[in-house]
Amino acid sequence: MIVFKRVSELQSYLQTQQKSDSKIGFIPTMGALHNGHISLISKAKEEGILAVCSIFVNPAQFNDKKDFEKYPSTVAEDIVLLDAAKCDILFLPSVHEIYPKGEDDAKSYDFGFLETVYEGAKRPGHFKGVGKVVALLLQIIQPDVLYMGSKDYQQCMVVKNLCLQMGLSERIRFETCPTKREADGLAMSSRNRRLSDSERSIAAIIYQCLISIQNKATSGMSFRIVEKECTELMCAKGIKPEYVGIAHADSLEPLADFDPAVKMVVLIAAWVGDVRLIDNMILN
Ligand code: AMP
Hints:
Helix content is 40%, strand content 19%. By secondary structure, the protein is of the alpha/beta class. It folds into two domains: 2-177, HUPs (Rossmann fold, 3-Layer(aba) Sandwich), CATH 3.40.50; 190-282, Pantoate-beta-alanine ligase, C-terminal domain (Pantoate--beta-alanine Ligase, Chain: A,domain 2). Strand 2, helix 2 and strand 3 (50-55) form a beta-alpha-beta unit. Helix 7 (126-141) crosses helix 8 and helix 10 packs antiparallel against helix 11. The model has no long low-confidence stretch (mean pLDDT 97). Adenosine monophosphate (AMP) binds at residues 29-30, 36-37, 39-40, 148-149, 151-152, 177, 179-180, 187-190.
């Protein structure tokens, strides 16, 4: 694997690859890698595509500065994992390399309704920050395929919308990869390593709630009751839910009742101790 820290050096390497007809796959990450991230690299490799992974903890997407400061950084371990997964390129830029004139100078995109619900509502400015960094990274790397995880469901919608606004939807294939989970169902996340043993032992309740919501909501129970039951269950077990919502999977409009004709997603954000976790599941 080749590691680049400079935009100019990465770009001149990628231009040579493009001339030899290699397809470029891009996997943006914030590091502290786990098997969920690695599944995206593996997908690119299975497809015979040059895997370009970035590790960049983007300050612009942290509405909570403490969360940014506490975000885990394990670059040496990440490199070992990426090497083992046969990742071709790691882009490891500094904040200055991405935002030479500061993050406020970077172009900001408007994601409309998507910024007002669920993660958008609870983390003001978060998706603006995601939009800024992903737009810059797409301009730098000019990938043919973008690999992202459905673990961050709303983020996938935002980035698809970003590609549309940038006029890249035809040029870039968007590959959404399934959520990788631990044996007890907890979605793999860089933040899981901040959980204490006792917090880790209750964290899988979030997944159990998703399964229970899927069963109850698709058998006709009112969504308000299902959401309330799960909120109460999490609270009783020591987890603090921020939201439990069932929404239209293509628009994220909140829904009240099951309709087999509509694709639906359940979304949860919850605090386990001082660690904020998110997860989701398609209902039908
Ligand atoms: P992050 O480093 O958290 O910004 O995530 C980088 C990419 O990895 C995003 O596209 C995530 O959706 C994806 N990802 C994170 N966790 C998982 C997981 N458990 N399974 C699959 N993909 C994941």
